[in-house]
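All the exercises in this workshop are built on plain-text protein records. A record pairs a protein's sequence with a compact description of its fold. Read left to right, the backbone structure tokens trace the chain's path through space. Once this layout is familiar, the rest of the handout is easier to follow. Here is such a record, shown just as it appears in the course material:
>
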Amino acid sequence: MDLATIIGLSLSLILVVGGIVAGGEAAAFVNLPSMLITIGGTMGAVIMANPMDRIKKLGKITRIAFFSQTPDLVSLVQTIVSFAEKARREGLLALEADASELDDEFLAKSIQLVVDGTDPELVKAILDTEISVLEERHASNKGMFDTMGELFPAFGMLGTLIGLIAMLRNLDDPGSLGPGMAVALITTFYGSFMANIFALPTSAKLAARSSEETVVRELMVEGVLAIQAGENPRIVEEKLKVFLPPEQRKELEERHDNEKGGEE
């Protein structure tokens, strides 16, 4: 579970809804027709704007923003360096069994390409293409939430216009103008609320997750190509440490110190 997403969403809901309740007019913010226009209209337009295969994955894509974990780059570097040590000691073919046991399909495929004796330039070309396709797929998924972020306020404004038209038909009743205006503006509130609390933050989180996954893939490619080139495991580790932020480089060094302490 992504704690930042859960905490951020909960905090926004508590503060906004709490502010409404504290104002003493909570019931005035509940209006079913306005919800149908804003949320129903937006979802219909999103379905129209995207292929059905992508729409079917909407729930799965949303879960990525709420439940994905930040990748453990330190452990990944240690795994690849251990592969480099084994390849130097026993040869590239010795990695075939390790590749079959990996949970990450991209890394398993990368190792298998090397074990199969594929030309290094072809290995890099295949893996770079996979990363490009991954980025395009992630951009398309993020685009659905960008579209929602644009459409929620638009349908909110549409609902306001519908409400104003209905209100103007009753101008002969001055007492109904105030409540009618309030109901008309609720749709604008719903549109802004859904865009800024759900659609746009989810889009931003998907972009962050995509960036993290791309870095992981690029780290794997760098490591696998270094293994294929027969480079010293220490050099492989130094190459891969470039991908780590300072605090994770320190964590890697601490793990090395702990391993040395355990051996002594």
